[in-house]
Amino acid sequence: MVLSEMRRRKVLFVGLLGGLLIAVALALNIGWIVVNWRTGLWLLAGIISFAVLIAGLVLNTAFLIREIRTTEQHNAFIHAVTHELKTPLASIRLYLQTLHQRDVDPARRKEFLETMLADSARLQSTIDQVLLAGKTGAATRVVNPTDIDLAEVVGECVTVAGRRHHLIDGEVEVIDRLPEGEDAVVMGDREELQAAVTNLIDNAIKYSGERVRVAVELVKFGARGVAINVRDQGMGITRDELKRIFRRFYRIPGALSARVRGTGLGLSIVRAVARRHGGRAYAESEGAGKGSRFTLELPRKPL
Amino acid sequence: MTRLLVVEDEEHIANGLKFNLEAEGYSVDTEETGEAALLRLTNEPNTIDLVLLDVMLPGLDGFEVVRRLRLAGSFVPVVMLTARGETDDVLRGFELGADDYLPKPFDLSILLARIQGILRRKMWLENSATVDLPELLDQYRFCGRQIDFSKQMMERAGIEQPLTLTETTLLRHLISREGQVVRREVLLEEVWGVRQDTDTRTVDNFISRLRRAIEDEPSNPRHLLTVRGVGYRFVAKPGDAS
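Structure tokens for the assembled complex are given below, as produced in the milestone run.
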């Protein structure tokens, strides 16, 4: 809250300063034209140098404002990652010390161990996410691709997500809409594809609120493509946010997103993975409160 | 029975804390959000003896909870717990009225010791006929001001102003050694019960809060004097002390 207020002030200041300087340069330019309007060469030289000056100022201001935004997002990311790393660690440490210092009855002991396992899984997934973001950040192609059946990947991811979020049957549904006799084999990196699909499913669950209704569809697209659609009936996305959410570190502002854990890396990984596999990722939504649909399109393995 | 309120949205940590605190003999309630905690503390004042407050809560964060709590006139001791352990955050927590601050991941025995320390201080203030500082009465007057230690109140020109537990304890320590220089480290140990892991700037921060409360001109103090590089000295009647 305080952070965004400070940022707004900084951006406002830089914007005003830039605007003021541009106005001064413009006024000087007009003055120059008025004073030198009869001397052809001087007039031309003046107009050109003022144009360069003004263009420089505009660029500089735009650049500064962008930098401020990036830095703020980066700070928010550091905070989020710090929280995501320290919280499960704090929990594990608390339970370890408890078991170390106190007599705990066997039932409780088992419960504590389960808690610690869940926390270490959470820690692991944050670490994986950060490492994967570093790896996929370079927009090159996947090295040493292998044959991967997306239907299998989707099935696994849904099972794992269901277990992690303690879902009951039917909350996440897998629908295979591929035509008879067609498979969903792509060439790629299994770990990356799993991470991308998991991120989409996790997001759909996390942003669903209390009532989870998620459908994961496998569909054919074009002549040689396969797409994974992840639909939810959650909080939805406004038109402005549809593109931004794929940016690295970007998180939807607002109260509900504060209740959702995350680092702002998930969707940027999805997009990077899609590109590295020669595909693309995008989001659609009817608007806030109306659910959303994420699509990951990938080219199938050439025949 | 001493009753604690744990305000923590991370279920695992809340349960772990509850288990340990109950094992220590405290009765423990938990809340998941800042809003719920505020409502509880303002609707049922004086039922909770100490609050363990997480900073990163959904909605109202811990800083805001402490600020609103103090604004609403509740001076229940608050220990803040957070993954954000940078000095600025710690100072901000103190500035807003927290009594103590522990970074996550914390050490269980340190946490328990801090809680015990604060509760002891609270008892000490409530039963002012203590062994520690027998010469000091429950109330203390100087230069038209009156401090009521057990009520954690200061009165000046008919206006009553509440003080936090830590402010009151710090003031009491300084007043009991009127005219003498008290070192920052000594204050840290006696008031906060900590040795090495808290910055001595914590003390400075509380002194400036106290100055705002008791001095006419906080920037030009006459009662709470800084002794450069050493610590602080309380002077009841300026002019007497050289």
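The longest strand of chain B covers residues 3-7. The interface with chain A takes residues 10, 12-13, 15-17, 19-20, 23, 56, 58-59, 61, 64, 83-84, 104-109 of chain B (CB under 8 Å). Further analysis is deferred to the final report.
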